[in-house]
Amino acid sequence: MLHIFNTTDEVLHGLAAFFIQAANKAIAANGQFVVSLSGGSSPKSLYELLASETYKDQVDWKKVYFFFGDERNVPDTDKDSNALMAQKALFEPLKIASGQVFKVDTSLPPAEAADDYTDTINHFFNNDVVKFDLVLLGLGDNSHTASLFPHTPILNDKSASVKPVWLEDQQVYRISFTAPLINQATHIAFLVYGAGKAEAVHHILKDPVNIPEYPAQLIRKDVDWFLDEPAAFMLNIG
Predict the structure, then answer these.
(1) Which CATH number fits domain 2-235: 3.40.50.2300, 3.55.50.30, 3.40.50.1360, 2.60.40.3200?
(2) Fewest CB within 10 A of the end CB: N or C in the chain?
(3) Distances (CA, A) of 212 to 97, 157, 207
(4) In whole angstroms, what separates CA 47 from the centre of its chain?
(5) pTM of the model
């Protein structure tokens, strides 16, 4: 479903309300809400909003458990760490207990870190089917999501797991959920704003399937897209 808003601020409030609704529904049904967070600058604004006076009292945060859909291969004290960003923007302001946060152990080599995180996730879900209540995703201007980058082997991975991703152009590793793991979630929400993302949004939602070029096409179709008008303008809606 497309949720298109006039401004970035409206997009963030729209997704914050969606997050709150999904959280309270899951807590009412199962006693907990299990969410996979996205990294980057766009979700940071969302996390700060969730921790604000407007939203912080709308969820029982003691029943929320946090994972990360991908992580950079850097120490969790590094400025580029997704976990550190979420720590500052969300966990510390809301006083989230450390036992509710499951980080990628980037002190391990990338392949070991990915296997370890797969084990952590499977253990949390009691070795049953891993089904996050919500997976939050962003979209790069090169059509990647999580760390599913164009022309990387993880795009062909059929396992619901976590894998290392080598980015040749950057000479760095990342650690990422595979598409099958993401697609098992109850809800998936993309947060995308800005005219710079409009072409990528069009590739994913309108172009013929070309997974090597447009990896976010791997994500199942019944997801919620939270877009501002500049990001949506190439969709020719309405």
Answers:
(1) 3.40.50.1360
(2) C
(3) 39, 12, 13
(4) 12
(5) 0.96
